[in-house]
Amino acid sequence: MTAPPTAPASPDSPDAPDSPDHTMEAIARAVTEGRAGRTADARRELLALWSSIGVTGDPLHRCTLAHHLADLYEDPAQALAWDVRALDAADAVTEQRAREHHADLRIAGFHPSLHLNLADDYRRLGAFGAAADHIDAATKAGPGLGQDSYGDLIRGAVREVAEAIARRDTAPRASAPGATV
Q: pLDDT tens per residue, the chain (181 residues)?
């Protein structure tokens, strides 16, 4: 496992958690709604969950929720706020907690995607120095990715965002999660 877990059908999620986790199930349902185009409903559900989890709640729940909530915002400033929360929470997730959720989940695999998202947010905001810092962090964290389709997806997106940073391009990426371009 290489990224914050989501719905079982997503490429960055476990087939099934090792034990029932009702919060993760609720997050997965909301993510599925968002991917089906019901972004306002998905945002409402995730924001309600965030309120119940709280800023001191389970870091795996906070990381997963914030990671996916960021994708539901077209505005890069709003996405940035949630991506920062996701990275902060990931830094508090222990390997033990990750494995309690799913035996194959590894924290090292979270960071490439989380830094990639931050780099893309900063790039879209025209903060190219901060974007470059996070794309460098994503690249350095790259060995935490598996040699699978998800790892290939993230590595490709890192290259794509790095090229956009070099061009000083602030346009949304068509391949970004939640993209409507």
A: 334 554 333 334 433 444 578 999 999 999 999 999 999 999 999 999 999 999 999 999 999 999 999 999 999 999 999 999 999 999 999 988 988 888 787 888 899 999 999 999 999 999 999 999 999 999 999 998 989 999 999 999 999 999 999 999 999 988 776 665 4
Which CA distances in Å does 168 have to 34, 107, 116, 122, 158?
A: 30, 31, 16, 11, 15
Per the CB < 8 A criterion, the answer to whether 88 and 81 are in contact is: no
Cβ contacts of 51 within 8 Å, gap of 6 or more: none
CB of 113 closer than 8 Å to CB of 155: no
Q: Answer whether 155's CB lies under 8 Å from 141's CB.
A: no
Residue 103: phi, psi to the nearest 5? -60, -30
Amino acid letter at 181?
Answer: V
Query: Six-digit token pair at 9?
Result: 């059908």
Angle ∠(134,63,139) on CA atoms, nearest 5: 25
What predicted TM-score, i.e. pTM, was given to this entire model? 0.84
